[in-house]
Amino acid sequence: MNYNDNLRGQVANNKPQYQPSAQSLRLIILLILVMGVAPSPALTAGCPARCVCDDQLVVQCAGQHLTTFPTEMPLSTRQLIISNNRIIELPPLQLNYLSDLVYLDCSNNSLTEISESTFGNLRKLAYLDLSFNTLARIEDRTFGPLSSLVMLRMTDNPGLWDIHPDSFAENSALQVLDVSRNNMTVLNISSLIGLPTLRSVGLSGNPWSCDCDNEDLCLWIQVEGFKFQDEGQTVCGGPPDLRGQRLGELGLQLRSRCHQGLGSWDYLFFIAIGFVIFAAGTVSAWAIGVVMVLYERYVKKKSEQMDPEDEVEQGAGPGTGSGGGHDANPHGNGGLKNTGHIVV
């Protein structure tokens, strides 16, 4: 009994020794919550199914056989990789919640369409990869909201044949653009040529049409060939007599060919200019005629107002002349009288 009593006494004495540790742990957790120290936002906001999220704000969903855009995405995500899936659409509403996103890899999916609203709130995005999809057209201002975009890869879209001239007009930070291995025949460079930081352009693998529609493109490649990373493989797909020739070699040739004669639009332009000049001359002649008629009427009216004044002056003139004649006539009359006296 004494042994058992002693053993229970030791257990009873040891119990209080563990209570401070539990209380300390609870206090530490409470202190962390009060001070606002929480785990990584990427982990706190959850992570999409079949994706991996780390404390570096990277969400990795590559090769997970996804058919839709991942849901429950951490709002603080900075890098999102959804490549090698079967996603057919980028939902603007979900994507634009990721306002801190700087890196987006959507390559090797089944995307068919993107628009200005797709990237409406991604103003920090610097890298975008849309390669190996099924895009067909790039509309006006599709990339307009991406004011920080530095690199855009849009290669290997077999159906991509048209890029709007103003698609890149607002991407002043763009440095690298790759549209290789698509189905493009014509590219309007009006917005591209004005980008101040553009230093690398990929155009190879497209069936370029080497005619007057691509005259500016060929001249650009010829003048600034250093910007084109695959200039040697950027060749004509037509017409047959130029197939396989490098675009950079045809700039001056196309310029001379496209401007050696006048087309129907040129003649219409000259006719319009002639009509404008004729109309301007007619209006000018009419205006001058009106001014001359008004001026002639003014002069005639002025002369008519002056004629009565001349008549008044002429009427008063003889009276004044008789007075003068009275001063002069005595001498004349006196001469005649004297002459009369001499005769008598």
UniProtKB/TrEMBL annotation:
Region of interest: Disordered: 305-344
Primary gene name: LOC112227351
Signal peptide location: 1-44
Composition-biased stretches (Gly residues): 316-337
Bilayer-spanning residue ranges: 267-295
The protein, known as: LRRNT domain-containing protein
Record note on quaternary structure: Interacts with KCNMA1.
Primary location group: membrane
Keyword DNA damage annotated: no
Cellular localisation: Cell membrane
